[in-house]
Amino acid sequence: MSPRYTKADTLGRVKNKLTKSPEQFYKAATCLNWKGNVKDDGDYYSEVIAEYLLKGMLPAFKKIPVITRDKSYKTNHADTGQTASNRHEEKFAKKLKEEGGLHNRLGQFIDYQMPLKDERTDKAGKIDSVSSNVDESNVYLIELKVLKNKETLIRAVLEIYTYHCLVDRKKLLHDFGLNETTNVKKAVLLTATTQAFKEANDLPKRPNLKKLIKMLGVQIFSIGSDRQGCEEIFFQ
After folding, report:
1. Is the pTM of this model over 0.90?
2. How far is CA 236 from CA 47, 58, 102, 220, 226, in A?
3. What are phi and psi of 135, to 5 degrees?
4. Vertex 132: Cα angle to 85 and 215 (nearest 5)
5. Distance between terminal CA atoms of the chain?
6. Which of 114, 179, 180, 193 is the most buried (most CB within 10 A)?
7. Alpha carbon distance 115, 25 (integer Å)
């Protein structure tokens, strides 16, 4: 069994990682993936962290610098001859794009594993999936958590929020041939077998996390393991 930490221990780790590098916070702060409750007062770890972020710490994310890629954000994977990936999320995202169907509010999947880096030294990952709705009024940057993924909902939300801060949204719209008035939105897409899905369905018991998700403007969706039946779990 993993050790349990106090509220002070948890917040000490959060403060240290967030002040050092807000763009790396979502993956550097291991406490974001802690499940269960803090040792002293019984609150969920995610509730303690969300409350702290809501109390004046969100401006730290405004310091994240935009990375403008010289190359196109659009990957054209089909033309690269890339070998198959062993990563579940990448395989799942690839299938979503290949199947090309419309999935309720998320629309049609138009790309996957979209890079954010311009130079090798840039501290940025790749966006799992990109989708556009029918009238192209919205394009969604999507963080996938599928199959047996054990990462928490708060980590997934902060990851896609960070990516949204990093991306040059004007250039992204240009590269995909979308109107400059298109809204660039943030979403997390889950299958029912993940830890994040369990927590998303438990949001009434996690009011601070629910408020944080709303404050960050992230929408939460679920989809079947067969990539069918996309539904919205949380929308503000």
Report:
1. yes
2. 19, 18, 21, 10, 27
3. -90, 5
4. 95
5. 36
6. 114
7. 19
